[in-house]
Amino acid sequence: DHSFEEWGEPLVSAPAVTTESAISIEETTANPRGDVTNTGGENPTRYIDYGTSSGSYPWNKNCGVGGTGVYNSNLTGLSPGTKYYFRARAVNSAGTGTGSELSFTTKPNPPTNLSCSVISQTQINLTWSKGSGAEKTLIRRKVGSYPTSVTDGDQVYFDTGTSYNDTTCSCGTNYFYRAWSYKTGAPNSGYSDATSDDNATTLPCGWTGKISGVTNPAKIMGVDVANIAKVKGVA
């Protein structure tokens, strides 16, 4: 009798991978992840494919060769306030495994150059530059100090423009305005981390005088309105 024993290379199959949620999402960086659940007998090269349209992935990040477990992509160079679609992909000599599509939205940049101009005893006009990637701008105000959050103080404005006339002010009052950018689906309930701020005091109650010799005569900041006549250049 004769017996034979055959020895060969272990069979390799395509890897299996799932797509994991993105973490550490900022304005221009994020960490979409994948999870290799089966190497198929050969450690695969792991990727994150991504783009700004569902089902289309013009960019990919090579995350290196590795075994089973979660891997990170740590993407950089993203656009603020933008929705990205991504999937995990793993490749070995036997084939390719892909995960399902997920998405994330980067944070918008904050608004800039918020500026207050006092018009009257009851009106302060606001202008600002919209933050990159912002869908809307939220402006809130308080008397005596700046709002500390997107729920603190009174909401003045929440829309898509770059100017607003606040006509609900009281005479002789110092108002502190703070502006945030907003993007649907972004972290922080959609609001920017940073803000743009300014403050101004409305004309005093009973004020009937004229202001002259000032570049922006209606903007009165940090002035005791009861003694406004003592300000240099005010008549």
UniProtKB/TrEMBL annotation:
Residues in Fibronectin type-III domain copies: 11-111
Ranges annotated as biased composition (Low complexity): 18-30
Span list, region Disordered: 1-44
CDD domains registered for this protein in UniProt: FN3 (cd00063)
Protein name: Fibronectin type-III domain-containing protein
Cited Gene3D superfamilies: Immunoglobulins
